[in-house]
């Protein structure tokens, strides 16, 4: 939960800055808060996950382009690019290298049959492809305002992600196996008084 709140923090700041000022100030705030998160993790000696690096790089590039060109198109593409990169990594690793990224990340926390690991990876990749497409629809279809897109980006996508994750957890519960315990010391045979 702490990680979810930590990851959600820049989105909340982006939303607040947009409501107080405009999309360009909000973009500056998103860039600054994402960079500060990386620095915070570094100073605390905590591991920085690849997803954190991808997020900060993409917000700096697309947010920077938004500010430089004074065009919100770039920042509107940012969520789609990030989600589609996640999907590409999951699908590419599995189909081209026969590696399951989710299994590598989560195998110490849960044990699943191979086919379930593959389905889990594919469903998450599918979700990320869907989420990227939904972002484009809200951002560029002409049916939604900039204000509605910002609200959707901050809260709608987060709600979709939480609902999907809960659904995945319920589905996984039917397929989980016990994670084997780490081998401990071998007990010595008891002494007998013979």
Automatic annotation (TrEMBL):
Q: Specify whether Cell inner membrane is a keyword of the entry.
A: yes
Membrane topology term = Multi-pass membrane protein
Q: What is its main location?
A: membrane
GO terms for CC?
A: plasma membrane
Keywords, A to Z, come to: Cell inner membrane, Cell membrane, Membrane, Transmembrane, Transmembrane helix
Recorded hits in Pfam families, A to Z, give: IspA
Cellular location(s)? Cell inner membrane
Q: Which residues cross the membrane?
A: 12-41, 53-70, 82-102, 123-144, 150-172
Q: Which family does it belong to?
A: Belongs to the YciB family.
**Known role:** Plays a role in cell envelope biogenesis, maintenance of cell envelope integrity and membrane homeostasis.
- Any idea what this protein is called? Inner membrane-spanning protein YciB
Q: Which organism is it from?
A: Advenella kashmirensis
